[in-house]
Amino acid sequence: MPPAPYAADLESIRQAEQRLSGAAHRTPLVQCQAISQRAGRSLWLKCENQQKVGAFKFRGATNTVSLLDDEQAARGVVTHSSGNHAQALALAARNRGIAAHIVMPSNAPSVKRQAVEEYGAEVIACEPTLAARETTAEAVIERTGGTFIHPYNNPHVIAGQGTCGLEILEQVPDLDALVVPVGGGGLLSGICLAARALNPRIRLFAAEPSGADDAARSLAAGQLIPQENPSTIADGLLTSLGDLTWPIIRDHVEAVITVDDEAIVAAMRLLWERAKLVVEPSGAVGVAAALDNRFQSLTDLNQVGVVLTGGNVNLDQLPW
Amino acid sequence: MPPAPYAADLESIRQAEQRLSGAAHRTPLVQCQAISQRAGRSLWLKCENQQKVGAFKFRGATNTVSLLDDEQAARGVVTHSSGNHAQALALAARNRGIAAHIVMPSNAPSVKRQAVEEYGAEVIACEPTLAARETTAEAVIERTGGTFIHPYNNPHVIAGQGTCGLEILEQVPDLDALVVPVGGGGLLSGICLAARALNPRIRLFAAEPSGADDAARSLAAGQLIPQENPSTIADGLLTSLGDLTWPIIRDHVEAVITVDDEAIVAAMRLLWERAKLVVEPSGAVGVAAALDNRFQSLTDLNQVGVVLTGGNVNLDQLPW
User: Fold this and answer.
1) CATH code for B10-55+154-308?
2) What is the CATH code for A76-145?
3) Counting CB atoms within 10 angstroms of each CB, which of A234, B12, B100, B117 has the fewest?
């Protein structure tokens, strides 16, 4: 029997769902008439901004931490992140009663550092470069023997994020399509596998900032093209696809809809004003794509699910 | 057989629920661990901020408009309001294809006026006094023959708001208590009737701004005491109880928890930051009460529902 072609499958996603039961929220899937009207079709908004720690990242982190054996767990977990993965891993580790060591750039906002520390993790500051983050994380692993948990290029993370797709199709089974923001592609690839397994005809779209459009360029080129010098307000979507997420996206995603920062902020504000949901810029990219002319011109898409990926925003610094 | 003692009952609320089916949202009931921890018990947040027009008011308005006979309906509806009732009545009228005439004070924020006009209603400006609002509304009724729809002191409005209580107890049947903000008391009285009918042992609490505490003073005095010169950021809760809502509240509410504006804004911000919900000041008063020491000191309240009544906020003028 040949090996499974991808890093996760329906079976591993279903197992992840059982591990998440009781730990993660089954988030609401809501409609907002004003936004559906603007989109020209019925949109279903998956509220991962209301997931624990305010982002879908808690799903993958929890699944991955659950799968550590006791010996690994005793040595704790390590990552480098200034974003939602840091908080997610911190809480997932605390829930299992183990240590989390989070390497964060020294210029990360203090609110983000505080949030991670509130979840009981150790924060290790480093210079704000990728090289410094990686060498610092390696030193922490050396010191602690902890397990490095990648934010997306990890089979258990992908399976964990895929549970979001299972939920959406359980909540509204007859969707014609899903629109999912893409950064590293952990959420998008997990949802692709879950949704396509449950509904082979469902159409899958990625939503991406035009200032960090490596998924769009990769899909156009037919090969993984890393992101260089990204520039977008959607600070959760700066990263490149990984070698585990890319093949899944390549094979399942019909198109990548890119949107500029102006469209992202407009979608964000629309979600706040009309859907009454606090969504961060990255989390609004799917709605921005659904409102884009290129997506609106597609036919036979009456019922569309859109993932609101996160809601961690500094309320004292809003982009309007 | 003696007449029913109150303006509504379980039967009229169930009929309202059927009329609202398909027109109003069945809003989510969500949990937020961070807020529950601060409250010292498990809170269930009823998201009426995600109701159509962004507030529970759409329930009562829709039920009342549905009950007009064709002749009445043809002459339209009239009210005076600068708040959520205005938008709710405007949309409920549009859904039935009839006219709505809304008297608004000339100093009402232009965004509120625009929202009502977007729902297709005619806005009639008047001097910003209660006397001017009433005489202007009377003139509109004279001119149009329309039906005046009171925002709360109306049996069909009370029954409509009561559907929110039915939903909460369908979503989580074993709640120990409910906390509901009170202004005129339409929502509170409707929920009292629905919840007590479904669960005779449920404990019912009102949450009220200390700067508009007529319900607290009325309950203490055992008689309806109108509100004079209210002063609070919770601009949806300025009004006095009505003669239809007061007896229901008097007989069913265990206590009124009053909270000051500082506590209201803190609860509002907590809802935005941690529950990721856009809630207006009036809508956060229930959570402010649940976080108040007097409420926290009560025993045997493990599972508590709290209604977030609305989410209509000017995002350019936040109170922090």
Assistant:
1) 3.40.50.1100
2) 3.40.50.1100
3) B117
Q: B286 with B207: CB under 8 angstroms?
A: yes
Question: Distance of CA A186 to CAs A44, A88, A209, B158, B317, Å?
Answer: 21, 14, 16, 48, 37
* ∠ Cα A12 A13 A17 (to 5°): 115
User: Pick the catalytic residue: B46, B57, B112, B218?
Assistant: B57
Are B79 and B89 contacting, i.e. CB atoms less than 8 angstroms apart?
Answer: yes
The size of the A-B interface in CB pairs under 8 A is: 55
CB contact under 8 A, B50 and A275: yes
* CATH 3.40.50.1100 domain locations along chain A: 10-55+154-308, 76-145
- Tell whether ipTM is more than 0.90: yes
Instruction: Indicate yes or no: CB of B275 within 8 angstroms of CB of A47.
Output: no
Structure tokens at A305: 């699910």
pLDDT values of chain A reduced to their tens digit, one per residue, 320 residues? 444 589 999 999 999 999 999 999 999 999 999 999 999 999 999 999 999 999 999 999 999 999 999 999 999 999 999 899 999 999 999 999 999 999 998 988 888 899 899 999 999 999 988 899 999 999 999 999 999 999 999 999 999 999 999 999 999 999 999 999 999 999 999 999 999 999 999 999 999 999 999 999 999 999 999 999 999 999 999 999 999 999 999 999 999 999 999 999 999 999 999 999 999 999 999 999 999 999 999 999 999 999 999 999 999 999 99
CB-based contact A293:A40 (threshold 8 Å) = no
Residue A97 contacts by C-beta under 8 Å, 6 or more apart in sequence? none
Taking an 8 Å cut-off on Cβ atoms, the answer to whether A279 and B275 are in contact is no
Structure tokens at A125: 């500051």
Give the predicted TM-score (pTM) of the model.
Answer: 0.95
Taking the C-alpha atoms of A134, A135, A138 and A143 in order, what is their torsion angle to the nearest 10 degrees? -140
Side chain identity at residue A35, one-letter code: I
CA A219 to chain B, closest CA, distance in angstroms equals: 33
Q: Do B320 and A315 touch (CB under 8 A)?
A: yes
Shortest distance between the Cα of B171 and any Cα of chain A, in A, equals: 13
